[in-house]
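Fold this sequence, please.
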Amino acid sequence: MEKFVIEGGHRISGSVSISGAKNSALPILAATLLSDEPSVIKNVPNLRDITTMIKILRTFGLRVLSGNGTIRVEPRGYNQCIAPYKLVSTMRASICVLGPLLAKKGFAQVSLPGGCVIGPRPIDLHIKGIKALGANVSIGGGYVYARAKRLHGNKVYLGGAFGSSVLATANVMMAATLARGTTIIENAACEPEVVDLADFLVKMGAKIKGQKTHVIEIQGVKRLSGAEHTVIPDRIETGTFMVAAVMTNGDIEIKGAIPDHVGAVVDKLVEAGARISIKNDRIKVCGRNRLKPINVTTLPYPGFPTDMQAQLMAAMCVTAGISIITEKVYPERFIHISELNRMGAQIMLEGSSAIVNGIPRLSGAPVMASDLRASAALVLAGLVARGTTEVHRIYHIDRGYEMIAEKLHSLGAQIRREKED
């Protein structure tokens, strides 16, 4: 295994380009299962999760060619419909092959998913959705088994305890494209990644309306063709670099972003005192010596994203005053608190809210990443800590950030990757 070694106290400056969105690319790759014709997906980030999805597609018998951010998927003739535990257990997004397999082949056997440890994330909405379309579903031996000779359109309500589900919306939407009749998804997720998937499906010949709203209508078709598509830029990577600039009192230009996708992050950072200017696909972020504490609550899009909660908390750790961060999407997503406190942060957890008492500076320490976004927060904390920080288990961050150490180093951060002892 590897670790990051970070020497804190260096201001970052310069420009950085944003990679394609992992959370968009994964379901889009799964959607290629719906056609017999080749599809070409561009702007795909080189990440561990993408590699895992490619392995899953190859397990089904698809031919997958990848290089330079482009993946060509040739699905003709595949007949394997089992997504094995060994692969699915490492990545929750693997569950999104369930809908396409069922719609195209009439059968799917998909291992219950794994991924980051951020609290319970059941797949009940996925199962509810495909059952509503006429599938027979059972769970046994750690697998989901689904069968249907032909899916039928229906009205599906996907409201969960903490709001809509992105992956459940994606799964039901993909399954509905080949169902007989019309499917209406109520309380659908409207995140940019869902819209990007819908745009790809439309290019394949799907009939979809309302994908930017909480009510999506899908008119089933008999077949889908292959298509070419460019994945949207990663809004969470964009937000992470914005926070890095603010924390280090830096001055950076973020290129290739979609500013509308990070509106809630921009709003909170400006409230904290950052100077942010936007022009087309570029976001210029300038930090200030003295930030102001803020209160923030994570919510489904277009609210403040749960995937930015840990990074914002790292920033508030070195902001004078009391900040309150409330997690409404995954209420148990606070494992990073103990590691930030190891670096000298003063954070108390009360229910689903973290109370952050900002201090002048953190202290470098060995810390352990527990999940993808927590690892990003620890890296950001290391950038401003006094002395050396070692972030262990960085395989988490490699799942979702393309070349983050190299990008930060190009901006002046003192960060390097080393083998574990």
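Residues 50 and 135 are 28 Å apart (CA to CA). The first strand starts at residue 2 and ends at 7.
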